[in-house]
Design brief:
Structural class: alpha+beta
Shape: globular
Distance between the termini: 55 Å
CATH class: Alpha Beta
Helix content: 25-40%
Number of domains: 1
Number of helices: 7
């Protein structure tokens, strides 16, 4: 089956209401261009370094403005609308980095909480501790939709190929990678990681990204893109500002790529043997 997909690039600020307005405008534009599946980036609702200020504006999912606006919009436009992620307040004071998928009837199909927390120390003093505020998820998820099987990841998850592999083996044909990649890591790794995940699993990757300098001072890399199962970039945005990236997705090409290089079928289990030297000139038997 062939369908048109859109990856929405945003530069979300600290106010969920303003971000919701931007999301609605861009999603409407994407749908007007024929997209029936639209994905927004990680942290669609708010990018805010100040954890106390972020918690002050967050709601639980039932009262979250991004979730409610997305549900209404999906129903009005008759599309699949995938909020790549948005921060959701949890009862214990933690936050969920949660993706939400709504169907053409406006109902929520499923959600996905980011599994891998971005706890890193980069060059030039850039340091992040996502686990200090966010509660990691523990469930991978595939949605069996009318256009194909969609798998879910968020941003830092892209560095964990086993998450992609398990979903591909389970039948995923399209993987979503909404993100807010830092400029520093994006310049080094963004495209190569996305293309690698597409190639090694023989599937489409749709990656809506944050791009630009945000109100809280952080810089994100942008370059939202859609990649086919052979690793070709079908469409890509620039580094900063709003954008709508569109591409025709032919799910049949997933099965074609996997037939040519059936690595999912050819994978074998193995034993890892660590060999230690026994002394000069010899090794353990």
């Amino acid at each position: 089956m062939t369908f048109k997909a859109a990856a929405i690039q945003m530069c979300s600020g600290v106010d969920p209401r303003k971000n919701a307005e931007t999301m609605v405008r861009l999603v409407r534009e994407a749908a007007a261009q024929g997209a029936t599946y639209v994905q927004t980036p990680e942290m669609t609702g708010a990018l805010q370094r100040d954890r106390a200020a972020l918690r002050a504006v967050l709601k639980d999912e039932a009262n979250d403005i991004i979730a409610s606006e997305a549900a209404k919009l999906a129903g009005k436009l008759g599309i699949y609308l995938h909020v790549g992620s948005t921060p959701i307040a949890l009862a214990d004071g933690k936050i969920a980095n949660r993706g939400l998928l709504f169907g053409p009837d406006g109902r929520k199909i499923c959600d996905y909480d980011k599994i891998h927390m971005f706890d890193v120390d980069l060059d030039n003093g850039e340091s992040w501790r996502e686990s200090a505020a966010y509660q990691p998820g523990n469930t991978a998820r595939i949605a069996d939709l009318d256009f194909g099987k969609l798998g879910f990841t968020i941003c830092y998850d892209v560095r964990f190929p086993e998450l992609f592999r398990q979903q591909a083996v389970a039948g995923a044909e399209i993987m979503s990678v909404p993100a807010a990649f830092t400029r520093q890591t994006g310049e080094a790794h963004w495209e190569i990681l996305l293309r690698a995940r597409a190639i090694e699993n023989g599937l489409f990757v749709i990656a809506a990204a944050q791009g630009g300098t945000h109100e809280d001072g952080r810089e994100t890399f942008g370059h939202s893109m859609i990649i086919d199962p052979w690793g070709r970039v079908l469409a890509s945005a620039g580094s900063t500002g709003e954008a709508i990236v569109l591409a025709e997705i032919d799910v049949a090409s997933v099965h074609s790529a996997r037939a040519k290089i059936p690595n999912l079928k050819n994978a074998r289990s193995f034993v890892l043997d660590e060999v230690a030297p026994t002394g000069k000139g010899g090794v353990a038997a």
